[in-house]
Amino acid sequence: MADEMKNLGFARLDMSREERTGLPETIYCPGKTIEQLIGILRVFSEKGTAVLGTRCTSEQADAAKAAGLSVTYDALSRTLRLDGPAPAELPGSVAVCTGGTADIPVAEEAARTAEYFGAPVERFYDVGVAGLHRLIRCVDDIRRAHVVIAVAGMEGALGSVVAGLVKTPVIAVPTSVGYGASFNGLSPLLSMLNSCAEGLSVVNIDNGFGAAVQACRILNLIRNHHE
Amino acid sequence: MADEMKNLGFARLDMSREERTGLPETIYCPGKTIEQLIGILRVFSEKGTAVLGTRCTSEQADAAKAAGLSVTYDALSRTLRLDGPAPAELPGSVAVCTGGTADIPVAEEAARTAEYFGAPVERFYDVGVAGLHRLIRCVDDIRRAHVVIAVAGMEGALGSVVAGLVKTPVIAVPTSVGYGASFNGLSPLLSMLNSCAEGLSVVNIDNGFGAAVQACRILNLIRNHHE
Amino acid sequence: MADEMKNLGFARLDMSREERTGLPETIYCPGKTIEQLIGILRVFSEKGTAVLGTRCTSEQADAAKAAGLSVTYDALSRTLRLDGPAPAELPGSVAVCTGGTADIPVAEEAARTAEYFGAPVERFYDVGVAGLHRLIRCVDDIRRAHVVIAVAGMEGALGSVVAGLVKTPVIAVPTSVGYGASFNGLSPLLSMLNSCAEGLSVVNIDNGFGAAVQACRILNLIRNHHE
Amino acid sequence: MADEMKNLGFARLDMSREERTGLPETIYCPGKTIEQLIGILRVFSEKGTAVLGTRCTSEQADAAKAAGLSVTYDALSRTLRLDGPAPAELPGSVAVCTGGTADIPVAEEAARTAEYFGAPVERFYDVGVAGLHRLIRCVDDIRRAHVVIAVAGMEGALGSVVAGLVKTPVIAVPTSVGYGASFNGLSPLLSMLNSCAEGLSVVNIDNGFGAAVQACRILNLIRNHHE
Amino acid sequence: MADEMKNLGFARLDMSREERTGLPETIYCPGKTIEQLIGILRVFSEKGTAVLGTRCTSEQADAAKAAGLSVTYDALSRTLRLDGPAPAELPGSVAVCTGGTADIPVAEEAARTAEYFGAPVERFYDVGVAGLHRLIRCVDDIRRAHVVIAVAGMEGALGSVVAGLVKTPVIAVPTSVGYGASFNGLSPLLSMLNSCAEGLSVVNIDNGFGAAVQACRILNLIRNHHE
Amino acid sequence: MADEMKNLGFARLDMSREERTGLPETIYCPGKTIEQLIGILRVFSEKGTAVLGTRCTSEQADAAKAAGLSVTYDALSRTLRLDGPAPAELPGSVAVCTGGTADIPVAEEAARTAEYFGAPVERFYDVGVAGLHRLIRCVDDIRRAHVVIAVAGMEGALGSVVAGLVKTPVIAVPTSVGYGASFNGLSPLLSMLNSCAEGLSVVNIDNGFGAAVQACRILNLIRNHHE
Amino acid sequence: MADEMKNLGFARLDMSREERTGLPETIYCPGKTIEQLIGILRVFSEKGTAVLGTRCTSEQADAAKAAGLSVTYDALSRTLRLDGPAPAELPGSVAVCTGGTADIPVAEEAARTAEYFGAPVERFYDVGVAGLHRLIRCVDDIRRAHVVIAVAGMEGALGSVVAGLVKTPVIAVPTSVGYGASFNGLSPLLSMLNSCAEGLSVVNIDNGFGAAVQACRILNLIRNHHE
Amino acid sequence: MADEMKNLGFARLDMSREERTGLPETIYCPGKTIEQLIGILRVFSEKGTAVLGTRCTSEQADAAKAAGLSVTYDALSRTLRLDGPAPAELPGSVAVCTGGTADIPVAEEAARTAEYFGAPVERFYDVGVAGLHRLIRCVDDIRRAHVVIAVAGMEGALGSVVAGLVKTPVIAVPTSVGYGASFNGLSPLLSMLNSCAEGLSVVNIDNGFGAAVQACRILNLIRNHHE
User: Fold this and answer.
1) What is the pLDDT of residue G215?
2) Do H100 and H151 share a structural domain?
3) Which of G57, G10, G52 is nearest to F102 (CA)?
């Protein structure tokens, strides 16, 4: 098992993750001080590899830029990308769907993470089940993708409906979009877990990143299986 | 306000409910001893009015029959009906839909309650969203109804999808069908409350009866409005 | 099925909703950027139809005004109305009741939405059950309405008490008014779902909008039934 | 502080509770083996004092009788009384009200406990808020009591409505009567805790016993204050 | 039943509460606009009666003063008192105890409400069960009170321990003091409801006001019983 | 879209699911009467296709056999298989791991469902994280699988640990194994959703079936991608 | 690291746990078939070591005896002990306290597990905080123990009170004793986690076993520190 | 029992805690006004003893410094230390481990509290189970400690994995690190309570302080046992 590690005291960096898991390194930014985050980014910068930071605040991003690091920040998806060599392209493609407009930030976290990992992504936004004709018009396009990421808040029914319409694995992402009895995403989380449709698995509330990793592990599997 | 009441000690019977609310009397059977239930039925039997008991066990029903009361029991819906004059027919009709086969007992409680109140009922069972073509084939028929009762467990997406397809009021009934993270119906309850579709209101888990009362109050309104 | 749609990328607008559902278009404002909201309003402005935005912040409203759109904002109910032709008046009327003064913002969301849809509305505020004589003095007036919307926080008993006093359908709206064990509206939500009174159905916590849609679908049904 | 204690190994009996708290001894029967329960009853029997067991099963009661103890069992309230001298009568009286028939077992636990402690009790059963005229007819009688115990399941609105109608302290007892979103009594518990009415305090779900103790401590206070 | 009412549109003021319930009027301030609050205060000011506002913010209080009303504000307990004739003194006394220092604001809401109603109050602060000797040193003083209000957050054990040491009714107030698994007061709320001690009833989390009303209804009962 | 359907009244059978989704038909047995289940099995028997019933009770299985249907029942996994042509073998393989012995029934539901769909399955039971050496000894074998299903109750840490050790997608199945604060599987469900490891998605508590469908959709994708 | 393992297919037995952790082997019996349990016991029997099974049903115990294994079963604590050499005695002692009689089965699980591990145990049963004098009489004896295990249901205040009275580590075990708002042990669990007393840590609801292991690890530490 | 107490009105200071419990005094800062906190610090300053304040805000710390008190503040761990004589060193050592970087503030609260009590502390940060090789590299060092404090958020698996690798008692601290379905630390709390590993006990979410007290009571026990 490849397990090179760099111990910074506050963090032990996994320097051989790509070799071990097939997907490049990422950083979970919350709870890291600006000094810690910059310290971590420098290690990767010196190593010459790209890295993606998720849930990055604009303050963290600004500080990274001010420290002279070569980074790109996307405020909508809260992702920070340290420049580096592009990953090998993954085979197949990922469809990212949302129930509504308010789910787009989570969907973009998924889409940009997948793109960082080398996956082609197609976006289908605001296709929630309240107006079924919106979804039905896209269904042939969605079916062409190899993995579907269904992002929805409120009652989260998009996951079930999509999983019933396609052959491919569907990864459902509940979002905290909603109010009252959505209890910050509990409602769509339970919906997706209890789906009467098959072929659906679920990640944490607002976890676009996790859905993208799972999608890319699947695409990676296709690549590896036929090499 | 019509408020004739008969006090049996353990129960105070509302003898003028039909006059006051437009809908005939019903009995909630759980927690009543067999003696209490028979006592209540006798009061209505002597008055010469029909009455519907809900959530009635087969033991309660058998005891009522053994006591010489003229009753009919339906085990699937757990309803017990004391014979009496048929109610005036309500205008319009009620569509009762279910997500799956296991939701039928709750749907039948709704359907039989509505029929007891005088409403014509049409049943659309096993039209859940995992196989959308099942629902879409029925949608023109469902649209013809005046009120729709959507009964579903698991993730309860049926309510949202139906409400997006019809013009009429939809009353959603979450059921305790499911397991694990359905938490005995919490999952479809939250889904239905958080529906991104409009035109949906919700009753308690497994409360087919309550949905039927609400539907019949609506039909009654049509009748009253034009008398 | 009328299903004209306009795809803005971040939103797919349902341009034929009024034709399909009998009620005009509305916009759920949360989670939409100012640019997105203005983009959507422009589409309707150009089409020449009115539209109602709910849960609109004052920042969103100010931006819409600054963008030259002809809109009216009501801060209490957080509704934003794009000017346009008035809807056809609905038959019947809606009574909107609140338990207390603090429930009025939610009640006003319901009342203004119903008015936007063309329904006459009568308001009965601060008639909670702790001082029953306040409610009893209004009960004859409330009974004259065709649909009752009962808005209450804390223990939410207003729904049950009202539903026991009227013949018409009651739509109960739990509010997040309260503290401690109200758990942001969970307490009145559960109360309303478990009502021992009949003829009550429930919408999401603080969802005045949803109650109004359901009420207007009912009034619309009266209109359609007799056309 | 009077603190005579008898240690049976599995239980340390408080032999001077009446002296210390003003109210005689009681036994919580669940989780005690038949041998343990009989052992405890014997201690009190030998001491010559009465004692009341609550939540006693019929098996426990039968075993106590078979062991030759002079006990009386009431199956409805699940109370077992070891014969002994009657307590001094408490001043004032307790009104015990229920929302419905199914709440009566809990109400009887309260009523019989209060009677065991020497309090006069008046019962008002099935006066729930869904048919307000039932309650209003009794309200003058209820007002004559010194303490009111309001027992209700489902949405538990009885507590609020009663507390708004009387001057005396109201002790609310939520019951597990109901189904679905009552979550075994959580719904009326939250209702009673969040009451918009004043003068209401709450005990555990189905805890008729605890309500009676609180009521009798209040009556005892009247007695002591004027001795 | 005395039921004089004044309808301000946004509020229906109960002008005869003291006559009906024996305790003077109070105002729940949250969710009222400054205009509404001042409007209500003016009604009572013109009537010449005192009134107590609870959970009043300093902004509300400042505005009331600026409007020329004769009010006194206590920031710790968040109570606002409109000057007026002092109430008749209640017989007996109330002991207000807290587990810790952080519970004092809730305790002061209870103490000042009780004092407003005319009850003598004695305070026992920071007597939590972690250092039992602190409580035991006060126990003889606490026993002299007629009603005990036990205010505690975290695990809320104070209620049980105190109820086991006194003869009088104990009203337990859980507070939101704590963090993590206290879940904003759920932990002490459940503790107090499940107390193994007798003679305890419970009000909402942080509801010092409600505890004081219940305590004063009890003292009022002593007064009335012997008039 | 292939959408042949057979309407039995209580169920609408999806006769072209294999064509549409790539995986053969299955039946969810709970909530179906014996008559309903046999009716459904007969349809498939007459069509000459195999079908797998999940969560089947021994009573249902015995009745199916008694009705002359050619079925095989496995009590441990509660699966019932109607004999029929074997499916085409899927490429790759599925590793099914459990934390403990008590998780095996859920794991077997997953394993037998995957085998019914044509996937080779390897079992790794009782490799929970409390004794890490048990898992580490198997890790090279687990890595050879194309998809990993990690089944665990109690704290459900197996999912995280496995996902950190392999490159392939991991589907985590929380089980209801445990007691107390596992709250019937809530604990492992939350653990798996909050995993700090990447490459993990989650299905419902005890939903071995759902994990297998997701795994086989992934394997099916490999097949389809290269045809 | 000592890591001898025996793989039975359904279970991988840790044959060197005593060497690795200092405490002998135990078996968690739930979810194991009788055949599996006997198979595991035989492995240890053949190895000649004692083993303790917890949460063992009487059916499992009877089957083990019938299979000729030399075992002892204690129904109260649900422990099954396979005979074998006694462990070396641990230094110090463990005090096991309960709030009430109904907590004794959990306490006995703790006590017998600790005894199996070689720790001297002293029992203090029914010393709950409702009658504080019962606890205070024992406190000098409890202080002499090296570790205290505090077992309590209902509100679980025993943990806090004891931890405030002793210098030693206290391990608190919430039990499912109680009803209503104890929510199967949630109430004492939260109490113990939120204790205002220091020196308390908590194990799962009803987990007497886990408390004993932690206590014995502590005693083992004393032994090891001074060898 | 040593029980010297100083009553400040708002707080009753335990002046003999060290004598009674073996560990010096600490202050829980939340909910204390700046005046109260300074008042308490002055008492200890005058007595000449050190004291540690936990969860201290920077405002509180600045005010203490401005008041002329000799204090040291650590912002990361939110601890404030009043200078005073160093405690006697405790025997043995404490290992403090974290799952990730974001758990460090809680870990530092534990570490600094333990150091204040006289315990040697070794830190192992960012050794979470997603990259098991990070933990395995430290395991021999962790085993050398006498007590292990395992601090982790998200799924909190660190506790189980560590407890399975060491002989010593493990005290698990769930943290509120995470989002979505971590529900502010509920997820790791449940994980740690349901651990399949033995030798683990748990404190409140984010309660590094409580873990340190428990650890030091254990070390103190070693000291006392051999004096």
Assistant:
1) 98
2) yes
3) G10
Asked, for residue E87, whether it belongs to a domain, the answer is no
Nearest to G132 among E165, E192, E194 (CB): E165
Chains contacting A with at least 3 CB pairs below 8 Å? B, C, F, H
Neighbours of A43 (CB within 10 A): 16
How confident is the model over B14-30, as pLDDT tens digits?
A: 777 777 777 888 999 99
Contact yes or no for E117/E87 (Cβ under 8 A): yes
Residue E179: list chain H partners with CB under 8 A: 30, 55, 204-206
Residue of E nearest to H14 (CA): E131
- Count of alpha carbons within 13 angstroms of residue C188, beta-carbon side: 34
* A131 lies in the same domain as A42: no
Considering only the beta carbons, identify the residue of D1, D10, D17 that sits closest to G101: D10
Shared domain check, B40 and B101: no
Interface C:A, ≥3 CB–CB pairs < 8 Å? yes
Residues B69 and B123 placed together within one structural domain of the fold: no
CATH of the domain at F136: 3.40.50.1970
- Strand pairing of C26-28 and E51-54? unpaired
Say how many domains are in chain C.
Answer: 2
Residue F95: its H or E element:
strand F94-98
B226: pLDDT confidence band, cut at 50, 70 and 90?
low
List all residues 6 or more positions away from A176 whose beta carbon is below 8 Å from its beta carbon: A153, A182, A184, A185, A205, A206, H180
Helix (H, G, I), strand (E, B) or coil at F148: strand
In this predicted model, what pLDDT tens digit does every residue of D92-144 receive, in sequence order?
999 999 999 999 999 999 999 999 999 999 999 999 988 888 899 999 999 99
pLDDT for the residue A152: 97
3-state helix, strand, coil in chain H (%, to 5): 45, 20, 35
Q: Could you tell me which chain C residue has the CA closest to the CA of E6?
A: C134
The interface predicted TM-score of the complex, written ipTM, equals 0.95
Cβ B187 vs Cβ A202: under 8 Å:
no
Q: How confident is the model at residue A225 (pLDDT cuts 50, 70, 90)?
A: confident
pLDDT digits (tens, 9 = 90+) for C16-73: 777 777 788 899 999 999 999 999 999 999 999 999 999 999 999 999 999 999 999 9
| pLDDT tens digits along E170-208 | 999 999 999 999 999 999 999 999 999 999 999 999 999
- Within a domain: residue F88? no
Question: Which domain range does residue B137 map to?
Answer: 94-226
Nearest to A126 among C12, C174, C184 (CB): C12
Is residue A205 within 8 A of residue A185, CB to CB? The reply is: yes
Instruction: Report the neighbours of E using a cutoff of 3 or more CB pairs below 8 angstroms.
Output: C, D, G, H
Q: Is the pTM of this model over 0.90?
A: yes
* E to H contact (≥3 Cβ pairs closer than 8 Å): yes
